[in-house]
Specification:
Jelly Rolls, Arc Repressor Mutant, subunit A, 2 domains, 4-stranded antiparallel sheet, 39% helix, 24% strand, elongated
Length: 228
């Protein structure tokens, strides 16, 4: 069925896919012209974990489940996708093995876009190629921010370990122990990070109420105690 004969609803489904979020109406119409309708019966595996993928799917009718094999070989359900949802979009960019399986819970109707057609479209439409690049760049930036956040949390835990290890026992005052005088550079050297990062860590720990400061000395909870 040609894209012109498809409902606007199908094209809106394409617009909802993050990979195409920056695409123009004209490029979405062009993408729609390459959609192939497919139907699958209940209990059919559409995408199989570990196998390379060639298609992205937009679910028009029915419901599917996303599963992954656990270490002991049991099937673990990751989630469900209802009409209007989509899956397999990264197969349009490479043929890496699928990271999960998708199985039908009932009869379903799908619109499929092949990797070959998608790459052909990118060659024809520089605007579409740029839109996809913009979305991938956004994803990379988001991943970098998440990795940076996780790294910062690890640094913060190492800093807490240093403060706790250096603080005097027993508690020098109500529920608190005092560290020797420390500079941010000394702390940075001990936990293997930059002085600027230590400054951020110290600020966060103070805001959380776990750390207090008197001059160049720091006050931390007594062992076993938690900050209120």
């Amino acid at each position: 069925m040609a894209a012109s004969g498809r409902s606007r609803e199908a094209l809106e489904s394409l617009r909802a896919i993050p990979l195409f979020s920056q695409a123009s109406d004209a490029d979405l119409d062009l993408l729609g012209s390459y959609l192939i309708e497919r139907r699958f019966a209940r209990n059919t595996t559409i995408v199989e974990e570990g196998l390379p993928g060639d298609y992205m799917y937009v679910l028009r009718e029915g419901r599917v489940k996303v599963t992954k094999l656990a270490d002991e070989g049991r099937e673990k359900i990751l989630g469900f996708i209802d009409a209007g949802g989509f899956f397999g979009e990264m197969a349009l960019l490479d043929r890496a093995p699928r990271v999960a399986s998708v199985k039908t819970l009932e009869s379903v109707r799908l619109l499929a876009l092949s990797r070959a057609d998608f790459l052909n479209l990118l060659r024809k439409s520089p605007d579409l190629a740029m839109a996809v690049i913009m979305e991938l760049t956004r994803r990379l930036r988001e991943m970098d921010e998440q990795a940076s956040s996780l790294s910062f949390q690890r640094v913060k835990e190492r800093a807490k370990g240093v403060f706790s290890r250096l603080a005097n026992d027993p508690a020098s005052r109500e529920g608190l122990r005092t560290t020797p005088a420390l500079t941010h550079q000394q702390i940075a050297d001990m936990i293997g990070t930059s002085r600027e990062t230590v400054t951020r860590v110290v600020k966060d720990l103070k805001q959380e109420g776990w750390l207090q400061q008197e001059g160049k000395r720091y006050l931390v909870p007594a062992r076993g105690a938690t900050a209120e």
